[in-house]
Automatic annotation (TrEMBL), chains A, B:
This is Long-chain fatty acid--CoA ligase. PROSITE patterns: AMP_BINDING (PS00455). PANTHER family: LONG-CHAIN-FATTY-ACID--COA LIGASE, MEDIUM-CHAIN-FATTY-ACID--COA LIGASE. It comes from Amycolatopsis cynarae. Residues 448-522 form the AMP-binding enzyme C-terminal domain. Signal peptide: none annotated.
Amino acid sequence: MLSTMQDGHLSISTLLRHGSKVHATSTITTWTGSGTRRETFAQLGAHAAKLANALRSLGVTGDQRVGTFMWNNAEHMAAYCAIPAMGAVLHTLNIRLFPEQLTFVANHAEDQVIIVDGTLVPLLAPHLAEMKTVRHVIVANGDAMALEAPAGIEVHSYDELLAGQPDTFDWPEVDERSAAAMCYTSGTTGDPKGVAYSHRSIWLHSMQVCMTDSMRLAESDKALAIVPMFHAMSWGLPYAALMIGASLVMPDRFLQPGPIAEILAAEKPTFAAAVPTIWQGLLQHLDANPQDISHLREVVVGGSAAPPSMMHAFEERYGVPILHAWGMTETSPLGSVARPPADATGERRWQYRYTQGRFPASVSARLIGDSGKELPWDSESVGELEVQGPWIAASYYGGSDIDPEKFHEGWLRTGDVGKISSDGFLTLTDRAKDVIKSGGEWISSVDLENTVMSHPAVAEAAVIGVPDEKWDERPLVAVVVRHGQQITASELREYLSDKVAKWQLPEHWTFIDEVPKTSVGKFDKKRLRALNLEGKLDITHF
Amino acid sequence: MLSTMQDGHLSISTLLRHGSKVHATSTITTWTGSGTRRETFAQLGAHAAKLANALRSLGVTGDQRVGTFMWNNAEHMAAYCAIPAMGAVLHTLNIRLFPEQLTFVANHAEDQVIIVDGTLVPLLAPHLAEMKTVRHVIVANGDAMALEAPAGIEVHSYDELLAGQPDTFDWPEVDERSAAAMCYTSGTTGDPKGVAYSHRSIWLHSMQVCMTDSMRLAESDKALAIVPMFHAMSWGLPYAALMIGASLVMPDRFLQPGPIAEILAAEKPTFAAAVPTIWQGLLQHLDANPQDISHLREVVVGGSAAPPSMMHAFEERYGVPILHAWGMTETSPLGSVARPPADATGERRWQYRYTQGRFPASVSARLIGDSGKELPWDSESVGELEVQGPWIAASYYGGSDIDPEKFHEGWLRTGDVGKISSDGFLTLTDRAKDVIKSGGEWISSVDLENTVMSHPAVAEAAVIGVPDEKWDERPLVAVVVRHGQQITASELREYLSDKVAKWQLPEHWTFIDEVPKTSVGKFDKKRLRALNLEGKLDITHF
């Protein structure tokens, strides 16, 4: 029996209409380096309409892809609104991709137009010749004349192109399951893989961001979106802000601790979102240059695990609670949020807050063990996390033959390994591909790394599994010694001896100058493994 | 271009699985008159599975309808979960319907089974013989033996039927657009009309209830659901509580001010929901029997307009803010919620809070004037409210020929008349059918009634339009004088003269013993108009 309820409605055009009308006076503030420029949501509505008209005038039609190569600013926000609302697909290009990845994703998505920030032109320009479908480049916040494009690509000034365009647009109806926006993941293996979010998934995800037990975004908020708009949709903040009327503060390219502190002082946001390295940098800056940041009701940290020491420092020294969250590009990205149960107090409350968080109703989770069997939620059983839900990817863009291993039985295999408590809190211990399978037990490379890095003489440490006849795999620790310090493998092994289980104690150690990194700054263990296979590491064995 | 996102997931079975696992320790507490009985969400999961198995054993299959004729209690909550999760459709029968309406809705929905609370058996039993599709009646919380059912209907004891049933159930996959639950509206014209909520609409509505700028329901809440589960799904609280892990307190049949005060003292809920008459009654009780109720972070009031004096009394005397909201059975029911913008303070804040509230992104609204043209949101233009959204009815159950006037161009005509501010706050002034159209202007019958009722000698006043040759319509005021008081039409007209615009001043007055009421206690203006047409009112004309 069919319901009698209305269908449709879940679309970026509805969101834009709502935000620009009901929350007309909410604002998007963009930092200029020395001050701000401000646009109301009513102006954003007109701005987005002008951009949509401009893109139509360049021939953008149907569900063609329009790329952005931009910082977080008002123009990027207009692109977030205009492109999906006109029925096209927003493709946020990650400015930190390696050149070959960048051309790959632009070609794979078949971008027709790219909007680029003036300051990012030098990063993009050298690769335009290899972007086979791009016909137009629009330079925002900078000088279009400075870009010499290859033949076949027209260059436009954003301001000139939009000037004179009508400030209304007849936004078409779209199917809620059609793609609204795309983002490619930059894994360490193979080509980047595209995730295409739907109008529906973005709508549901935005509601989640505004739920009290999630990020709690409200009309009363002024949200500083530090996490880039080219990185998992800035964790959903732009669309959620439009939904609820929260004002947005955009740092543009000023992501260093000093400018962030300046933005905090000038705009006094109530909420902010960024990866741990940003908060670590800000913490050091604040410790050296004290400043009241208690206007922040909460800041959300994800992307990688937030160190407990940092969580305590922000809360105890600055009165700002850190909300730990987990997600990935394939999960839109909101997967879990570490808001403790109401009855957890004191140390128990902190233990909940250190976790990657609790699963909301829209994200079903299960743990799969080595044998492929589902594991219990007992805070002990360790397996690979699989998730399911309306804002979780079912496949990668381009067909089900792209990395089919990531999806099975309707679940996304996250590649993350961890355990879940009986009340649905996730604790991650490793990436599935990095976990070390030793004698039927799993050793977390991340736990070992953190323990080694807790030694004051160690700057960085990366752990990989190496083949072992008896145990299948055993850990190899690659250590970067802190500048001016000295330490031996024996001393580190001794240091670890009372900190990890005896059977986890690594036998293989090497000292390197630097841990190889991926384009987004994560440890590149693939390269480390390659160096080992090529015999380029000088290893001490115990 | 299709997105790569997963589909499905939005279903009551997902909700039940989530709530009973992730929020296993949250509770449903049912008031027994002298104390409580408590069930955890984990127990609710098992309870619902037993009920689903029991219903299957009675032959309930596919999308058959199962009726409930129950108070708010743990058994009704199990029915809310089990019936939609097993793929059947929950039909909440309003115990306050007139007998002919009750048999009409049971027959129209083709209910196969009815679950009835023992104390409500006397209300249901006399009508069972006319309910043509009912095959089984299950008596909960009472003596099944006391019910003598007509031939063809089997009577079961709820407890005996569930005893021994398995406490797990293989919940089937359902299409999210299929019906999960039904509710009939009891209008004053024609037969009741059915609204069939979908799994999808309930899911989205539950998310809205948990949004910070909506009802703000959270895991930390203990919500007292006074609004009946047979009345617009108890405003979505049961499903939203399951989604977020909020504990529920159910008053069962104890809805009088004394017992409600007892429940508040015993359970100290943080949140509550009820119509204004309940709060008015509680207020009088509390004023006579003072009690600390500041454990309530907020209470939501809807169903009809909350008098400002009551809102002030609760906030200023008891420290409990009243959140005013508007909705109807056809809107699931959350339409708008009066949470003021963050920058509104003092008197301006109160002015926002008196309104029916602001439209969320999932509810689009427009005002249609007399000429059928859309009116601006300028806080002045008065028209009929039309709404659109994923939890708004597109038609009534039974086909598009049932009251087609209520729906046009994809919008629901609410039958409510009012104005909207530029920032999306709704102020209702009347029901469309009650508004008085005088010389091209609209006179609000509700405003006139409230003004007349502000006179201390007036107990009740109802205003209807009567035909007028010159002005089309003019108001007729029917007054019920307060016991022991005396007042004349001239005196009331004089009293009004400096309170309403001159052209609104009523010329026609009548005194009656009582305003006729509908089954849900609203003024029955249809009957008042009939009395007038039949010449049964003694009217003073000026």
